Amino acid sequence: MNATARLFPGFRQETIQTSQARLSAVAGGSGRPVLLLHGYPETKAAWHRLAGPLARDHTVVAVDLPGYGDSRVVGDPANAGSKRWMGAQLHELMVGLGHEHYAVVGHDRGARVAYRMTLDRPEAVTSLTSLAVVPTLDMWSGATKNFGMGAFHWFMLAQPFDLPERLLSADPTYFLDLTLSRMAEGLEHLDPLALAEYRRCFLDPDVRHAMCEDYRAAAGIDERHDIEDREQGRRIRCPVLVLWHEGRTFGPGRVPLDIWRDWAVDVSGRGLAGGHLLPERAADEVLAELDVFLGRD
Question: Catalytic residues, which ones?
């Protein structure tokens, strides 16, 4: 039995070809569909504590972001790291699985793809849950010395090809373990099977390149898309749940709930203990919030 089957018992393993990607996913349960999108530097394995309980009342799809994990970009599409491009491929995935309308739950980078999908496809996304992030435009505008020292990878991975790729290739496992240890407040807090999956995938240079393209897009086209939305007064109309690391603020002391209210008309949420990796470190609390929130759909 492979690691994915052990982490997601009872789920089907799916490989879906979209127009510009080959996506690796698991699917299970029944009911209204929910798409789970993981963050950097992880894979769909990040949802192993939440997917099963959610599948009691929902059809759950957890997927490796395009280029991450076992998902691959096909060909050389323009703007392959952009959240708009990723969102388009993931929408194709959901439609291909028979889901024209679905909720999206995203953590970290996955939450950035999730809110872009919500803005670009309001007819498809029924609700948005953002774990641990605020929109990219607000991240850059609120960047401080403390942010740069703690989240240095935002600047490092966004450097032009192939500087970060070369730096990461020197000792990928060391870099990954250091990153995850900071996020999880110790590697001992991560499931050994999930950690092994993260290490396996990060050793692939194609995966590391896709991560760099993700961060390059954040420093370029993703920010421009956010600026366009802000200038045109475009807002998220579906319900939004925001959960974040308790005590975390952005820019001049603003909490995520305040920032998201600039972007959406119906926002609720709160801070949770457990650090950045909420799907793994605070799974019970996240599940309790999702059970109530997704019941509104």
Answer: 108, 276
Summarised one tens digit per residue, pLDDT across range 128-165 is: 999 999 999 999 998 889 889 999 999 999 999 999 99
pTM, two decimal places: 0.98
Three-state SS sequence of the chain = CCHHHHHCCCCEEEEEECCCEEEEEEEEECCEEEEEECCCCCCHHHHCCCHHHHCCCEEEEEECCCCCCCCEECCCCCCCCCHHHHHHHHHHHHHHCCCCCEEEEEECHHHHHHHHHHHHCCCCEEEEEEECCCCHHHHHHCCCHHHHHHCCHHHHCCCCCCHHHHHHHCCHHHHHHHHHHHHHCCHHHCCHHHHHHHHHHHCCHHHHHHHHHHHHHHCCHHHHHHHHHHHHCCCECCCEEEEEECCCCECCCECHHHHHCCCECCEEEEEECCCCCHHHHCHHHHHHHHHHHHCCC
